[in-house]
Amino acid sequence: MAGETGPIISTISLPIAMILAGFFAISAYNGLEIYVYIFRTFRRHRGLYFWSTVCANTGILIQSTSSLLRFFAVAPTGPMSAVIDIGWWMMVTGQSLVLYSRLHLVIGDQRKLRWLLYTIIGVFVLVQVPVGALFIVNNYYGGPDVETPVTAAFVGIEKTQLVILALQEAILSGLYVYEWSSMRKQMEITKGRKVRTLFHELVWLFVVVFALDVSLIIIQFANLFQIQTTYKPVVYSIKLKLEFFVLNNLVYLVSSRGSSQHDIELPIDSMPLDTAADDPWRSRRTPSLGVTGEQYATSAE
């Protein structure tokens, strides 16, 4: 199983090699474009939203580049497997934290937010780290023509990992739809049609994230390791661009004035794109629209 244990340059056809190179080009372009979006949007480089976005996008470029170098035997297999793991962890966990970092705008209950954060950390420690360790061991001690017990274990647990990560991201993106749907009718009174438009964007965010994750799972269960490894950064770069667009629209809508004298407006020091005050890592009283959309819900961690 050359893909799981080392280079594949001598075992794949030219069309497959071109597909892999094409996936690398797409993910690299998207990653560079996202960097431009990030540094044009954030005036102050601080807060969980900023750093999780940078982490996820950096992971996309690391994962795609190191996979290409490893597959085509440009760099040694063992060290590249460790670099691939680092890129994968940054890309996946970073993207989950991007989704998490804006949830406090629609969820006022700090206990819910805390459990979501614990879930993300738990999945990283209990699922992603063991899979990464197996991948490194497999690349140092496995062989392209022999399926060792480590290889079999890695193939099985990696499929489980993708399913768990897909469920995690579906829950995080689905919470935006659920929470916003419960407040949008009252929000429309003060903020107009933009509330309905944002709701549709959140729905599409959930649908696209779920569909892309399902496509990854299908490729994984089809045992197309070399395809799914280079396809992953493409999927995550598309999701990150979409999340960045939709979540920024959420920030601007929540922070903007509407058409009513009773409109809701967050204090200027809680503007997420510009200050460190909006940081879910730190204990604080969190401005939130809660579940009613009529007033702030504040609670201390």
Characterization of the model:
The chain is mainly α and 301 residues long. It has a single domain, classed as Rhopdopsin 7-helix transmembrane proteins (Up-down Bundle), CATH 1.20.1070. It contains 8 helices and no strands. α4 packs antiparallel against α5 (110-141) and α4 packs parallel to α6 (149-191). It is elongated. 39% of the residues are buried. Mean pLDDT is 81; it is low at 259-287 and 291-301.
The residue-averaged pLDDT reads 81
Class by helix and strand content? mainly alpha
Total number of domains: 1
- What proportion strand? under 5%
Rg of Cα set: 21 Å
Biggest pleated-sheet summary:
none
Order of SSEs, N→C?
HHHHHHHH
Enumerate how many helices there are, as a single number: 8
- Unreliable segments of 5+ consecutive residues: 259-287, 291-301
CATH hierarchy, class: Mainly Alpha
- Give the terminus-to-terminus CA distance: 49 Å
Features:
DUF7703; 301 residues; Rhopdopsin 7-helix transmembrane proteins; 8 helices; mainly alpha; transmembrane helix; DUF7703 domain-containing protein; 0% strand; transmembrane; disordered C terminus
Secondary structure elements and their pairing?
Blueprint: H1 2-5, H2 14-41, H3 48-71, H4 77-101, H5 110-141, H6 149-191, H7 193-221, H8 225-255
Describe this structure in a few short sentences.
Pfam families: DUF7703 (PF24802). By secondary structure, the chain is mainly α.
